[in-house]
Amino acid sequence: MAKFILKRLAMLPLVLFGVTVLLFGLFNTLSPEMRASIYVKDPRQLAALDEVIRKYGLKDPFHKQYVRWIARVAKGDLGYSETAKMPVTEAIRSFFPATIELSVLAFIPIMVIGVWLGTLSAVYRDKWIDHFSRFVAITGYSLPSFVLGLLLLMVFYGMLKLFPPGRYSLASDLIINGGNYAAYTGMVTVDSLLNGRIGVFFDALKHLILPASSLTYITMALLVRITRSSMLEELGKDYVRTARAKGLPESVVINKHARRNAWIPVITIASILFVQLLGGVLITETVFAYPGIGRWVAQAAVQLDIPGVMGVALLTSTLFVLGNLVADILYAVVDPRIRFQ
What we know:
Distance between the termini: 12 Å
Helix content: over 70%
CATH class: Mainly Alpha
Number of helices: 16
Number of strands: 2
CATH topology: MetI-like fold
CATH architecture: Orthogonal Bundle
CATH superfamily: MetI-like
Largest sheet: 2 strands, antiparallel
Number of domains: 1
Strand order of the largest sheet: 1-2
Radius of gyration: 24 Å
C-alpha cells in the first residue's frame, strides 16, 4: 500500500507541472497589455503600461515568462485583485474558508443520502423506493440551481422568516469583528466553537442551511444515479448469486460484498463533486448572498479582474489534481487488486 501511494505521489509534481503550463498557456493568449494588469496595484500605473510590460518582460519568449511566473506563484504572489481590493492570495485566504464550510456541510448529506438512496433503489428495483429515488435524481439533475435556491428563499425566508441569506447576522458580525474574537480557521462554525460563542455558531449554521440544502439536492442526484447503476451491475454478477446460495444474510450480501465492489465509480464521482464544491459554487453563493470564493470569482470575471480569475483557476486545478490523488488511494483501499496492477 505504501509503495502504491509513493508512486502516485511521485507523479504529482509532473501532473502539476502540466496543469500550470496549460493554465499559463491559456493566460498567455491574452495581449501583453491585458496581462500587465496582474502586476498593477495602483490604477495610476495604467497610464504607464508600456513600462510595466517592459519591466516584467511580457513580450519575452514563453518559457522565460513561465519560469518567472511560476517563481512568483511559488512565493505566493498571484497578483492584485482589483475586485477584492487586496492581493489575490489574501482574497483566497479570505473567501475560501466560507466555501469550505459550505462544501463540507453539503457534502456529508450528499454522500450519506446519495449512497443510501442509490443502494435502496438497486436492491428494491421497480418498487416504490426505486421510483422515489429516481424521481429525486431526475428532478435534482434537471432543476436549475438558481430556481431551487429562489424557491427555498421564498418559502423559508420570505414566508416563514426562518433561514436568512448571507453568512451571519449583524449581531454575530459585531461579535466577530469586536476585537475579542480570534479567527483561527476563517470558518465561522469552527471558530465560534473555539471562541466559546455558541450563539454565533447556531447563527452561522442557520445561514448555512438553505444554501447547503440546495447544493445537496442538486448535487446528490448524480451520485444516486451512479450508485444505483453500479449496484445493479454488481447484484447481477455470479459472486452475489453464490453468496445468496450459501445462505448468507441479505444485509451481508448487499453491504459487505455488492456495495464494496460498487464503490469504484462512486468514489470517482464523489471526488469530482467535492472538488467542484470547493472550487466555488457560483450560482448558489450568488443567490444566497454567501461570501464564498465562487461569488468573488464571478464578480472578478465580470470586471475582467484577470489576476483574480487566474488565481482561482490555479486553485481549482490544484484541487482537482489532489482530488484525483485521493480517489486513487481510496481505490486501492476499496479494491486491493488495484495495488498490484
